[in-house]
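2024-03-11 09:14:02 DEBUG pipeline.ingest accepted 1 chain
2024-03-11 09:14:02 DEBUG pipeline.ingest length=126
2024-03-11 09:14:03 DEBUG pipeline.predict start
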Amino acid sequence: MNTEIISLVIAGLGFLASIYYSSKSAKKQNIEDAVEHAKSDTRIITKLDTIQSDVRDTSKNVDKLREEIKEHGNRIVAVEQSTKSAHHRIDEIVKLHNRCCGEIPGQRYIEPDYLKKWGERKEEND
């Protein structure tokens, strides 16, 4: 009977020791997993912050480009108006040249309608 009790006690102690060490090992593994998870999360958060910063910079650049495009649009309108005005003046100069000196040989000039009306008004005033 002594042998049986000793065997049971040893078996019970072995069982308790295995439970203790497996619990301790599981806790250690959980801690290591938590540390790895925290490192991974930190890397991800850092990368997301970098991406967010890049997106902000890109958005600012796009806004600047939009403003420049608006400014260029306004400048184009002004240049078109100036060009139109210059063409009108050139047409008037050519018309006056043709009236006073005659047409340039080999070059045919067709007087625009707006100049014909202008010439009629000038002739009426004279």
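2024-03-11 09:14:41 DEBUG pipeline.report Residues 2-125 form one domain.
2024-03-11 09:14:41 DEBUG pipeline.predict end
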